[in-house]
Amino acid sequence: MTRDQLKQKLGKRIVELRKQKNWSQSDLARACSKDRQAIEKLENGKVNPTLYTLLEIANAMEISLRALVEWD
């Protein structure tokens, strides 16, 4: 898997989990103290997030970091 493929998969996973909570990008951004544009870029695979950013997102969604990065 290439870096770009990994960023795309991660972005899709975040979208999937966010929609399960019926949250908008703005809702997620507020919950993890980011701006909406940062969430949009992350979901679109435009950025390579730090581990800390992923932890903030997982905490905001009340899931484990492992659950955030698990996919088929």
TrEMBL record:
What the entry lists under SUPFAM superfamilies is as follows: lambda repressor-like DNA-binding domains (SSF47413)
Which InterPro entries does this chain map to? Answer: Cro/C1-type_HTH, Lambda_DNA-bd_dom_sf, TransReg_Diox_bact_type
Q: Which GO terms describe its cellular component?
A: cytosol
- CDD domains for the chain: HTH_XRE
Q: What Gene3D superfamilies does the entry give?
A: lambda repressor-like DNA-binding domains
An annotated Gene Ontology molecular function = DNA binding
Q: Known PROSITE patterns for this protein?
A: HTH_CROC1
Keyword terms of this UniProt record: DNA-binding, Transcription, Transcription regulation
Q: Which part of the chain is the HTH cro/C1-type domain?
A: 14-68
**UniProt keyword Transcription, yes or no:** yes
Please name the Pfam families in this protein's record: HTH_3
Name of this protein: Transcriptional regulator
